[in-house]
Amino acid sequence: MPPEAAMDFSAAPAPELAAKVQLLNDRYRHHGATSVLEAALKDPDAGELTLVSSFGAESVALLHLVSVIDRSVPVLFIDTEMLFPETLVYQQELSERLGLKDLRIIKAAEMDLAKEDPDGTLHQFDTDSCCDLRKTRPLQKALSQFDGWITGRKRFQSSTRAALQFFEADGIDRIKVNPLAHWHPEDVRNYMEENRLPKHPLVARGYPSIGCAPCTSPVAPGEDPRAGRWRGENKTECGIHVVDGKIVRNGGNA
């Protein structure tokens, strides 16, 4: 199945959704990350939200923020079944430490895996289709019961995120909340240190950005933090994010 064959991301957000996103950004434009998150979880204009987390290199900061505000917020974790063993252990230990009460582990449908990637080698010749199968579709299905989702995306991470706002439209009918949009690398480090939060074990081994094991490699000093993701390909995003109706997969294009 070609990527996104079952989903149409080309439609513009519904006018009422675009207006709601603008209203929320105007309302909380001068707020900090904590107050934006607190407000989003209570504001009826934001609706019912879930946090989507990779439990990667910087995930603990946002997970901790949410746990302090409301540990019952649903947390979605996409297990592609190709993750590093260290990520799976970190996810379990961190969930227990933070007292997350509603962790939901989502995976690709067994029928889809058997049909599209029966031998687990799809990533070797079509990384976009592999990400679609193991990440995009399972996430879209899980998100269908929510009005929006909370992400840890930040402006400094890539050119496609340089103008990121606290609130944005996700497709035609969902909201995306980015409470850490204006944080810098040092903000993440300081928050983790001040709250004595455990780092992902692979960070110390040269992995500043962590995805699936077959498609993630260590990063050398001076390289872009995401240089180890899909190394050698024109691809810097897995495709779970939609900007202007397009799946984002690289620094400048969908």
Automatic annotation (TrEMBL):
<dbReference type="GO" id="GO:0051539">
    <property type="term" value="F:4 iron, 4 sulfur cluster binding"/>
</dbReference>
<dbReference type="InterPro" id="IPR002500">
    <property type="entry name" value="PAPS_reduct_dom"/>
</dbReference>
<dbReference type="InterPro" id="IPR004511">
    <property type="entry name" value="PAPS/APS_Rdtase"/>
</dbReference>
<keyword id="KW-0411">Iron-sulfur</keyword>
<dbReference type="GO" id="GO:0005737">
    <property type="term" value="C:cytoplasm"/>
</dbReference>
<keyword id="KW-0560">Oxidoreductase</keyword>
<dbReference type="GO" id="GO:0019379">
    <property type="term" value="P:sulfate assimilation, phosphoadenylyl sulfate reduction by phosphoadenylyl-sulfate reductase (thioredoxin)"/>
</dbReference>
<keyword id="KW-0963">Cytoplasm</keyword>
<protein>
    <recommendedName>
        <fullName>Adenosine 5'-phosphosulfate reductase</fullName>
        <ecNumber>1.8.4.10</ecNumber>
    </recommendedName>
</protein>
<feature type="binding site">
    <location>
        <position position="215"/>
    </location>
    <ligand>
        <name>[4Fe-4S] cluster</name>
    </ligand>
</feature>
<comment type="pathway">
    <text>Sulfur metabolism; hydrogen sulfide biosynthesis; sulfite from sulfate.</text>
</comment>
<keyword id="KW-0479">Metal-binding</keyword>
<comment type="similarity">
    <text>Belongs to the PAPS reductase family. CysH subfamily.</text>
</comment>
<feature type="domain" description="Phosphoadenosine phosphosulphate reductase">
    <location>
        <begin position="49"/>
        <end position="218"/>
    </location>
</feature>
<dbReference type="GO" id="GO:0046872">
    <property type="term" value="F:metal ion binding"/>
</dbReference>
<dbReference type="InterPro" id="IPR014729">
    <property type="entry name" value="Rossmann-like_a/b/a_fold"/>
</dbReference>
<feature type="active site" description="Nucleophile; cysteine thiosulfonate intermediate">
    <location>
        <position position="238"/>
    </location>
</feature>
<dbReference type="GO" id="GO:0043866">
    <property type="term" value="F:adenylyl-sulfate reductase (thioredoxin) activity"/>
</dbReference>
<dbReference type="Pfam" id="PF01507">
    <property type="entry name" value="PAPS_reduct"/>
</dbReference>
<comment type="function">
    <text>Catalyzes the formation of sulfite from adenosine 5'-phosphosulfate (APS) using thioredoxin as an electron donor.</text>
</comment>
<dbReference type="GO" id="GO:0004604">
    <property type="term" value="F:phosphoadenylyl-sulfate reductase (thioredoxin) activity"/>
</dbReference>
<feature type="binding site">
    <location>
        <position position="130"/>
    </location>
    <ligand>
        <name>[4Fe-4S] cluster</name>
    </ligand>
</feature>
<feature type="binding site">
    <location>
        <position position="212"/>
    </location>
    <ligand>
        <name>[4Fe-4S] cluster</name>
    </ligand>
</feature>
<feature type="binding site">
    <location>
        <position position="131"/>
    </location>
    <ligand>
        <name>[4Fe-4S] cluster</name>
    </ligand>
</feature>
<dbReference type="GO" id="GO:0070814">
    <property type="term" value="P:hydrogen sulfide biosynthetic process"/>
</dbReference>
<keyword id="KW-0408">Iron</keyword>
